[in-house]
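Please decode residue identities from the backbone states below.
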């Protein structure tokens, strides 16, 4: 039996309505991800493994412990960047394992953040079917704007397409102040636990302030200074390396692994700045003497190691006392006494910034701390 034209129109409208399409959307510019017009930053091996959005190369999978590889599927620090004159942007994505930890928001763990010309505009998060449909306004008048989409800190994601206004221009994003990224290695704190938003890890914050790229290789509970990870990181030609992994290893493991980790980087990059952070403040240090002793021991291990390296002639290794990133007076920046909330990451970024600026040779310009 033939369907009437009227019935066909109704069916088409039903399908469009059911799956979130409209006549306006279907006439717009659809770009399937990935696309040469869309730059992916923060995922060092993306060109090798695309379209998968993960943080370690697939060819080295068997060299990593399973927990490290599993955490590498979370695209923390990953960003999609471009310039466009479109007034609207739709992003279609899937987050198949969306969930929420007790001490971290769904947005930070599973969602997307939108920044336009360096300003936070909004966020998107999975629906009950673990699908993300971000529908954002970019401006009121057509003009080229820098757009950055921050990917989730703690859950894998698949990006399907981006949708722009009809006839919109898309081109490469503005250049960073430096051609190479700052590479961070560490624990859950480094990965971004527990920022409320993907764009509020301390690396993301300080990178916006300095206009530099960054790669986040924090592995929650598993930043143990392992040689396999050091060897992978040594593949990245970085502007600087920040070793922030004091949170996970015992003092002895920390003491033992640090020389090997640094030597692995130095074998390939003899002059690249390496910043080593000491432990920041945990809120129970004031009442738990054992915890305070452990934190102080790790601070001393890092400080003594840097002092010895510099005395031996390596002047591009720097120690950053973590208490300058988060101090006893800033304990409100902790969500559970251990992990930073977004305020805590602001403190961390503010404390790290002068050291990173100096190591990178950036001018001491005035940073706008909001």
């Amino acid at each position: 039996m033939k369907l009437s034209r009227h019935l066909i129109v109704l069916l088409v409208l039903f399908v469009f309505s059911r799956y979130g399409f409209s006549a306006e959307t279907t006439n717009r510019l659809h770009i399937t991800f990935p696309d040469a017009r869309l730059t992916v930053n923060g995922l060092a091996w993306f060109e090798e493994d695309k379209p998968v959005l993960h943080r370690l190369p697939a060819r080295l999978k068997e060299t990593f412990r399973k927990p490290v590889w599993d955490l590498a599927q979370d695209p923390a620090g990953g960003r999609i960047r471009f310039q466009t004159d479109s007034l609207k942007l739709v992003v279609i994505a899937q987050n198949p394992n969306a969930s929420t930890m007790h001490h971290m928001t769904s947005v930070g763990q599973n969602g997307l953040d939108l920044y336009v010309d360096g300003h936070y505009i909004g966020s998107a998060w999975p629906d009950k079917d673990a699908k993300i449909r971000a529908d954002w306004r970019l401006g009121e008048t057509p003009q080229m704007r820098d757009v950055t989409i921050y990917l989730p800190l703690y859950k894998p994601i698949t990006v399907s397409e981006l949708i722009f206004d009809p006839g919109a221009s898309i081109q490469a994003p503005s250049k960073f102040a430096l051609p190479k990224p700052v590479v961070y290695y560490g624990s859950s704190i480094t990965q971004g636990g527990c920022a409320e938003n993907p764009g509020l890890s301390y690396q993301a914050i300080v990178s916006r302030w300095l206009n530099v790229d960054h790669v986040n290789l924090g592995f929650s509970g598993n930043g143990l200074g392992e040689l396999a990870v050091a060897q992978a990181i040594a593949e990245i030609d970085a502007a600087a390396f920040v070793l922030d992994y004091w949170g996970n290893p015992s003092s002895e493991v920390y003491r033992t692994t640090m020389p090997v980790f640094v030597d692995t980087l130095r074998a390939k990059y003899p002059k690249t700045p390496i910043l080593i952070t000491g432990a920041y403040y945990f809120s129970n240090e004031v009442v738990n003497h054992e915890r305070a002793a452990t934190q102080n021991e790790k601070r001393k291990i890092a400080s003594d190691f840097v002092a010895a390296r510099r005395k031996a002639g390596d002047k591009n290794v720097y120690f950053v006392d973590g208490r300058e990133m988060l101090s006893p007076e800033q304990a409100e920046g902790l969500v559970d006494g251990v992990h930073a909330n977004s305020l805590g990451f602001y403190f961390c970024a503010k404390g790290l910034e002068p050291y990173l600026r100096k190591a990178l040779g950036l001018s001491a310009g005035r940073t706008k701390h909001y």
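Observation: The domain at 30-171 is CATH 2.60.120.260 (Jelly Rolls).
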